[in-house]
Amino acid sequence: MIYHPFTSFPILCYHVFFIPYILSTPSSSTFTAHTILVISPFFLILSFYFFGLFANTPIENIGTIATVGYDSVRGEVPLFSYLIYHHPPSSLPANLIHSLLTLSLLHLFLYLSPPMQTLLNVDLYPRLLSALFTSPTIPNFFNFLPPLFMAQLYMNFFSKAIAKVLWATIRESNIQVSHPGEARPQNKVMRKPSWHSSSSSSSSSSSSSGSGSGSSNSSANGKWVNLSSQESHLETERRFSHLFDRESGEEVLTGESAGRSTWKFVEAATDANADADQVHPLVDLGSASNINSSDVIFRSQQCHASDADADADADADADADANANANNPHPHPHLHRAISFYSKLQTPSGCWLGDYGGPMFLQQGLVIAWHVMGRPSSLLTDHHVEAMVKYFLRHQQKDGGWGTHIESPSTMFGTVMTYVSLRILRPADTSSSCISAAQSFIASHGGATETASWAKFYLALLGVMDWKGVNVVPAEAWLLPDWCPFHPGRMWCHARMVYLPMGYLFGVKFVYDKAETDLLIGQLRSELYVEEDYGSIDWDGTRHNIAEIDNYSEVPRVMKIVQNLLAIYENCDNSLVRRVREKLRRKGLEFCLDYMKAEDLQTNYINIGPVNKVLNMLSCYHKCNGDISDYQVRRHIVRCEDYLWVAEDGMKMQGYNGSQCWDTSFALQAIAEGGMLDEFPELTFKGYKFLEKSQILSTTTSRNSSAFAYEGCEKRAKYYRHVSEGGWPFSTSAHGWPISDCTAEGLKAVVELLKTKTIREAIANDEVANIVSTPERLQKAVEVILTLQNVDGGWATYENNRGFGWYEQLNPSEVFGDIMIDYSYIECSMASLTALADFVEFVDGTFRREEIEMAMGKGKDFIKKIQREDGSFYGSWACCFTYGAWFGVEGLVRCGESVGSEAVVKCCENLLEKQNDNGGWGEDFSSCYDKDYAKNGMQMWGDEEGSGVVNTSWAIMALLRGGRGGEEGVRRGIAFLKMRQLESGDWRQEGISGVFNRACGITYTQYRNVFPIWALARYKAYLEVENDNQN
Length: 1031
Hints:
two-stranded antiparallel ribbon; 39 helices; 3% strand; mainly alpha; globular; two-stranded antiparallel sheet
């Protein structure tokens, strides 16, 4: 260890060489004492640097760590990064402090303490100076090493004790940053959204854009059809083949096709399946008052396809045979009917698809980029425009505005972004009722200078706001050394990958090249601001402006000071400052382009999310001087459709390229818990095939893509990328970003599938790949999970927490909370813990057993620490406390916690207190926003008492896992789910159930099926155990 005298002694000796001059005269004693204390940290870091410890060093060479062999960059990592990132309560940081204190105290005591010098029987520093500067031979210097070594030994006890106390304080303060906190005392959601009726909204849309109304997928010209997986790939290659020179090696698409989803507009004249655009009898249309889509179009298409398959070969459809046996009713009819219906929605590739829209700023960014790039038809066709207009009009509220997401009350962020997009899509519409209402809303809140910073950024790109009105996003920040306490590479990956292209585009001051001649831009400059003269606006004075309705996460004062200093730096005309700025800017921009290219290739041009997808594309467009035919630009364009989804409310851009792997993993586990996977062999077979192909960089196709070249230590370290190979994604393998809970849920689903007769026989017959024939595949998944455990014992999302809680003082976004670092979450922690437990129990009980047990013990402690005093758990990725309760109780019990423990009992009691009179539970996104339980939160979307089937399912699952199966509350909850189930086996779409960054809701249309199925399946399993016990 570093504090060991034999290992730190060379550092001490090296340190001494730096200070003999300071210590040369006795009169400098006071100065010396203070100076040494101040400069020791810098010399310590320099000594580490010159000893090569900041170089990439195999961690096997750094002490004896229980988890030797892998970490954030799998095998090699800069020491400082290792100290900050690594998940065990490592002693190395304490040892750094210890070495620092040893050096400082040693110099102090040696020089200022005569008793110490007498004890050592050496007048050390005068003799040392004499040896260094007067002795002709080096060996004389070594005569004084023994007393120096002895002095360090004397200091060892004191400095070690102090170091441990200091590090414990630092570490404990950083552990607490993952606690989401108690209820917000202010800035809660005070306004309720309100919309025009579905019919009037659709009528407005129809009259303006020619689209249909209601749930119809038809227009006068044709309809939208979903294509998935290989079919999607083939259609994209057909559509774009003329843009690529295949003979010269240009590729249209790379990566696995499994799970990919796109939409194709089928002209009426070529429609060979006339009934496929009709609503299937089994598909629920949803409530006319609910603005959430029910996914009528996709679900009808899937049900029609399922009917066609059954008609073509009814005898071969084992699932259909099972469903058709009316003379032999199933002992659990509600559960069986639910799975039977849900099996119809499964795609041929084995995954489930659904609407993952909701945010009202994603598609808007794409529309702005489309206009800036010259409105290429290869990106958006007239049919896209028509469907997008329909979506925007459907979600306009009575006050004329749009929310940050579809259930949010109107905000300036959502309104300004959507208004500009509508004007781009329909430039001739300057005075319709929807446009006029939006103009009034914007004006009543002070004009576009009061919108959120992200919206201002897009306005500057378009040329309707001066860049001086946008806070600086310095590309130069990437030039900071990696060991710098604040570095962009330490930020949460979603924030990092958004501000990366933002830094580039700000650095080049990108502006739409036709802004001064485009009539629409001139009109927008007039319409968006309350000031009469666009040219007279004091842009620099508006940088910090923000409407109160947008100000969820107020930019901290520290960040405003930083932004003001950056603005001074950015606008300084001093020749020396300008030359330095230009030189640093050029290097920063070069790095940004290089990093963006790496992200493009690692994700097969899908990118981590829709915001950086669009901004990366626009950066490529700028780099090639606006050449739309540039290879990188073309590869970006063909992947934009991966994010688009069509539902009865129009076309939207999703928050990811889908939630395929996440939803599918949950669905298969739900059915498995009821012991019914083998009752639906086709569903099981297809589900296994999808998950096997979805494991990242684990199939031949994925390893042949450019992404695999970036998996080496050197490139992952250069681009701040956590290990990917072996993980599972949220969406598809081609996306390429593994997440802790997605990896865990994928692993658990595979383990359940491997238990089934269906998959065992399929493997034996070589019908599917045997994922366990190569043990490393599941072992690598376990390693990915282990590497993602934070120092606090909880699990992060994409990568370990690389920063500190004070990073949030630098959060520049007003509309999102807690985005700066990768916190530990209850959801990621439970998923990871239970996956490790399943792996040990059912796959391999010896692989990394010691590390797994250590990780599980610390994980259980984390779950207890993050629990609120009232017993509840805050859910960060869905709405919200019922979701958190399921994860909390599940994780505790699976880690060996007794159902009678205080933590489990308190959570279950808290849930029962929140149960509504009709047996259900209900929350909406305001639970997440306010950090306070929104009782009756589903009142607008579920029933009059505010209950919803998804929240109820989560609560039931938590109570059953917590040993409360015999409670009346559980029986009432089950009765509620059965009562709300439709005859088809489906449940009606209610409100938004997902959320991210505390304040933005997002749609999961699959949840209304998956979690009621899971709750019913778990209750079935509970009843079977009870019956066995009674017999």
